[in-house]
């Protein structure tokens, strides 16, 4: 089977169009979706991501707030921000930008976000549900995105043998272990020089 280049931009545009009716319905009911991104770094990549995120949200009727605490914020200040947004009923989801300042416990802070407001699906409760049941809502967004892209070119994924080749294997392993509800892939995450012959579905992150 020849290689297929998946057009992620086109798929994202389709999904955003499909999302609009839900956003409009919630907004009309007085519950406009509101994403809060907490930033405690001066990383240029984070700045670019925050800007792009804000633009996408604005274009699709989603309220977006960046709580910029500065690169010198300590753990207590970041924790206070998380608790503030946790307690705000108008906030739908919270995202904690990485990297965090040195000496800050990222697991402690991630765990402080309410599971139901965990925008990235990485709260220990959500990951534990995923490991225990194979399902989670929310599930890790990177893994969900990868599976959604695959489903566009191979609608039936259950039972497929997959090989995910990339440098960082943590998210790839979640994907293979069933990080998205309703999908059961059989395979492993390996480096580029291993296992290419035995797998029928090869996933490359370009």
What report would you give on this structure?
With 206 residues, the chain is an alpha/beta fold. The chain is built from 7 helices and 6 strands. The strands form 2 sheets. The chain has a 3-stranded parallel β-sheet with strand order 2-1-3, with helices on both faces. Strands 5-4-6 form a 3-stranded parallel β-sheet. Helix 7 links the parallel strand 4 (161-165) and strand 5 (186-190). The protein starts with 7 loop residues before the first helix and ends with a strand. Residues 167-200 have low confidence and may be disordered.
Key features of this structure:
alpha/beta, 7 helices, three-stranded parallel sheet, 15% strand
Shape verdict: globular
First-residue to last-residue Cα separation: 19 Å
The portion of residues assigned to helices is 40-55%
Enumerate how many helices there are, as a single number: 7
Helix and strand sequence: HEHEHEHHHEHEE
Major pleated sheet: 3 strands, parallel
Structural class: alpha/beta
Strand order of the largest sheet: 2-1-3
> Using DSSP, what is the number of strands?
6
What's the average pLDDT? 81
Strand content: 5-15%
> Low-confidence parts, pLDDT < 50 over ≥5 residues?
167-200
């Amino acid at each position: 089977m020849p290689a297929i280049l998946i057009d992620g931009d086109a798929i994202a545009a389709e999904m955003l169009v499909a999302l609009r009716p839900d956003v409009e319905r919630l907004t009309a009911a007085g519950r406009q979706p509101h994403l809060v991104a907490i930033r405690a770094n001066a990383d240029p990549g984070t700045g670019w991501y925050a800007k792009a995120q804000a633009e996408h949200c604005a274009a699709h009727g989603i309220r977006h707030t960046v709580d910029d605490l500065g690169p010198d914020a300590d753990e207590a200040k970041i924790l206070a921000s998380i608790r503030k947004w946790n307690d705000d009923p108008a906030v739908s989801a919270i995202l904690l930008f990485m990297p965090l300042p040195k000496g800050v416990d990222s697991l402690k802070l991630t765990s402080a976000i309410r599971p139901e407001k965990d925008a990235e699906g990485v709260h220990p409760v959500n990951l534990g549900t995923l490991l225990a049941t194979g399902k989670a809502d929310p599930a890790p967004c990177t893994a969900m995105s990868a599976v959604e892209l695959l489903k566009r070119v191979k609608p039936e994924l259950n039972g497929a043998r997959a090989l995910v080749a990339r440098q960082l294997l943590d998210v790839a392993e979640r994907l293979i272990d069933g990080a998205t509800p309703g999908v059961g892939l059989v395979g492993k995450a390996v480096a580029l020089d291993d296992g290419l012959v035995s797998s029928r579905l090869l996933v490359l992150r370009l």
